């Protein structure tokens, strides 16, 4: 039950952080992709940082995994989840699979966005 509360609290915090950072970034840059790019960079950096905290074992595994990684970063940016999965595959020595996952995720997600835009025009 504790992990559900940690994910919910982290998710709410991550969503509010993303919303705030998006608005701040849009104040300086009109284009929305700058905000997304910044959020993805920050989220990817933080996922690596939080994973390293988990390996150091100086902090609660529950707090790091459920509040920070799944809750906060999962809500802040889905790119951090992607980064985590790629790193996990890489650390498991599944290099080809991690590269395939990277390339296919980028290509298929961009294609899906394009397809969604085209369907919307119908």
How would you describe this protein?
It is built from five helices and no strands. The chain is an all-alpha fold and 122 residues long. The protein has a domain at 2-77. The longest helix is centred in the first third of the chain and has 27 residues, at 2-28.
Major sheet characteristics: none
SSE order, as H and E? HHHHH
The separation of the N and C termini measures: 45 Å
Number of strands: 0
The rounded Rg comes to 16 Å
Helix content: over 70%
Measured by DSSP, the beta-strand proportion falls in: under 5%
Put simply, the count of helices is: 5
Q: Round the mean pLDDT to the nearest integer and report it.
A: 85
Question: Can you tell me the overall shape?
Answer: globular
Assign the structural class, choosing from mainly alpha, mainly beta, alpha/beta, alpha+beta, or little secondary structure: mainly alpha
| Multimeric state | single chain
Contiguous uncertain segments of 5+ residues: none
Secondary structure layout plus pairing:
Layout lengths: L1 H27 L3 H25 L4 H16 L1 H14 L3 H27 L1
Helix pairs in contact: 1-2, 1-3, 2-3, 2-4, 3-4, 4-5
What would you say about this model in short?
This protein is an all-alpha fold.
Keywords:
5 helices; 122 residues; single chain; mainly alpha
């Amino acid at each position: 039950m504790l992990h559900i509360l940690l994910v919910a609290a982290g998710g709410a915090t991550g969503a509010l952080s993303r919303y705030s950072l998006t608005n701040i970034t849009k104040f300086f840059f009109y284009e929305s992709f700058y905000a997304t790019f910044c959020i993805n960079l920050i989220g990817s950096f933080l996922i690596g940082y939080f994973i390293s905290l988990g390996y150091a074992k100086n902090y609660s595994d529950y707090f790091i995994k459920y509040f920070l990684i799944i809750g906060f970063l999962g809500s802040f940016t889905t790119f951090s989840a992607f980064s985590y999965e790629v790193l996990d595959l890489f650390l498991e020595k599944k290099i080809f699979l991690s590269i395939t996952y990277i390339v296919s995720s980028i290509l298929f997600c961009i294609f899906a966005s394009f397809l969604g835009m085209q369907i919307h025009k119908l």
